[in-house]
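Everyone, describe these structure tokens:
***
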Amino acid sequence: MTVAAILDHKGHEIVSARPDDTLAAVSTLLTQHRIGAVLVRGAGADVLGILSERDIVRAIAAHGAAALSLTASAVMTREIVYGCPADTVDKVLATMTDRRIRHLPVMHEGKLVGFVSIGDVVKRRIADVEQEAESLRAFVAGNA
């Protein structure tokens, strides 16, 4: 199974923040959408970074409550790893594990087409394994 299948199922909506949004505003955005990270995008919709719950917690640990006044651009992760729709679930899981990341923007022909989380990928992998197991049970039972 591929990232394209994950996006077809979950949708292509991408929740973004602006570089000058405060961490307080981004925290509200994360809560409203029940997500763990947003892409930080510039005026031209260019991806500038990723801001996750972890980034916010680290800022609070370093700066206390004053961190909530910091901007997204001051705290975001700037080194971005991208996936593509043709990537397999196994490849994306390996990338996320090796890089210790939980969110992956998806690019296709230079255009941002989606954003997947480790939860999306694991959910898809479990569904694939369950489908495989069911196929094997049907084969063994002679119902294939």
